[in-house]
Design a protein that fits this description.
This is Tubulin-specific chaperone C. The protein is of the alpha/beta class. About 40% of the residues lie in helices and about 25% in strands.
C-alpha cells in the first residue's frame, strides 16, 4: 500500500511540474505574441507617417518660394515627431529594427536638409549676424568678464540657428531665442557655449577644445568631428560620430549611439541654472530615465566585451559645479 502511495505521489509531483512548464510556455508565447502585435502595429503606423513625410518632400519642387520655409518647418516637425515615436517604442522593438527605423528617420532628415539647401540656399561662408538684444544687467555682466563677446547669432532661417567659425569666444543664448529651434554650432575653437533653454535638436560639428553647457533638447543631439570638448546635455537621443577625447555629461532617455569615436567618457548630467526644472518640464524628457552609462558603439560588435572607445568618467575627474564655466574661455 505504501509503495502505491509513493508511486502516486511521484506521479502527482511530475504532473505538477509538467503543468507548471506548460503554464510558463503559454505565458511566454502570449508575451511574444503581444510583442509581435505591438511591433506589427508600430510598423504599420511608422510606414504611414514616413510615407506622409516622403509625400511632403516630393511636393517641394512644385511649391512657390514664398511658402517653402513654412513647408520645410512642417517637415522638420514631422520628422522630429516620427523620431520621438521610434524612441518611445524602444521597449518592445528589437534592437536591429530600432536601428533600421532610426536609420530611415535619419535619411528623411538628411533629405529634408539637402532639399532645403537646394531650394532655399544659404549663403556660403557669409552668415548674417543678428544681434540679440541684451538687458542692462546682461551688458553689465558681459563687461565684467574679459573675452566675453557680444552675443551675435548666425541665423540661417526661422528654425535653424546658431554660431559658426569663431575662436576664443563666450557665446550665450537664452530660452526666448532657443525655444524648440534646430540649433547648430560648428567650426568653433576654444569657445564656451551656454544654451539656457529648450531646443528641438542640437547639432555640434567640428568643435575643438570647447565647452558646451546645454539645457534640455526635445529630440536629438548630433555630435560630429568634435575633439577635446566637454559637453553637458540632456536629450531623447544622442548620436555621436568621428569624435575624440570628449567628456559627455549626459541625460539621454534612449540608448545613445557612438560611431567612429575614440576616448569618449561619460558622466551623468549635472548642469544647474535658474530655470532648468521648468525647461525640463517643457521638454517632456523623462527625468527618471537616464542611460548615460549605456552607449551603443556601432564599431564594436562583441556583446560580452566592453567597447574600448568609450568609458565612464571617474568620479574624481568630473566637474561637479559648472557655475564658473559659463563665462570663461577654455584654456
Amino acid at each position: 500500500m505504501s509503495d502505491r502511495n509513493s508511486v502516486l505521489e511521484r506521479l502527482s509531483r511530475r504532473d505538477a511540474q509538467r503543468l507548471e512548464k506548460l503554464q510558463k510556455a503559454h505565458k511566454a508565447r502570449e508575451e511574444v505574441d503581444a510583442s509581435n502585435e505591438n511591433e506589427d502595429f508600430f510598423s504599420g503606423a511608422f510606414k504611414i507617417r514616413s510615407e506622409y513625410i516622403e509625400q511632403l518632400l516630393s511636393q517641394i519642387p512644385t511649391l512657390e518660394t514664398s511658402v517653402l520655409t513654412a513647408h520645410f518647418d512642417n517637415i522638420k516637425r514631422e520628422v522630429n515627431e516620427l523620431q520621438k515615436y521610434v524612441v518611445t517604442s524602444s521597449f518592445f522593438l528589437k534592437e536591429f529594427n530600432m536601428r533600421k527605423y532610426l536609420g530611415i528617420v535619419q535619411n528623411l532628415q538628411s533629405k529634408c536638409y539637402e532639399l532645403e539647401d537646394q531650394y532655399v540656399p544659404r549663403k556660403k561662408f557669409g552668415f548674417t549676424r543678428k544681434k540679440i538684444p541684451k538687458s542692462d544687467n546682461q551688458k553689465h555682466n558681459l563687461d565684467e568678464h574679459d573675452g566675453v563677446d557680444k552675443i551675435d547669432s548666425n541665423k540661417w532661417d526661422d528654425k535653424l540657428f546658431g554660431f559658426d567659425s569663431l575662436e576664443g569666444k563666450v557665446l550665450l543664448l537664452e530660452n526666448d531665442v532657443l525655444f524648440q529651434r534646430d540649433v547648430t554650432m560648428r567650426n568653433l575653437k576654444n569657445c564656451t557655449i551656454g544654451l539656457k533653454g529648450v531646443m528641438g535638436t542640437l547639432h555640434l560639428t567640428n568643435l575643438d577644445n570647447c565647452i558646451v553647457l546645454s539645457g534640455p533638447v526635445t529630440s536629438s543631439v548630433f555630435i560630429e568631428k568634435c575633439t577635446n570638448c566637454k559637453i553637458v546635455t540632456a536629450c531623447q537621443q544622442l548620436r555621436m560620430h568621428t569624435s575624440t577625447k570628449c567628456d559627455i555629461y549626459l541625460h539621454v532617455t534612449s540608448k545613445g549611439i557612438v560611431e567612429d569615436c575614440m576616448e569618449i567618457r561619460t558622466a551623468p548630467y549635472n548642469l544647474r541654472y535658474e530655470d532648468l526644472e521648468k525647461h525640463f518640464n517643457m521638454s517632456s524628457l523623462d527625468k527618471n530615465n537616464n542611460n548615460w552609462d549605456n552607449l551603443d558603439d556601432f564599431n564594436w560588435l562583441a556583446p560580452d566585451v566592453p567597447s574600448p572607445n568609450w568609458s565612464i568618467l571617474d568620479v574624481k575627474g568630473r566637474v561637479n559645479d559648472w557655475s564658473e564655466w559659463w563665462s570663461k574661455i577654455p584654456l
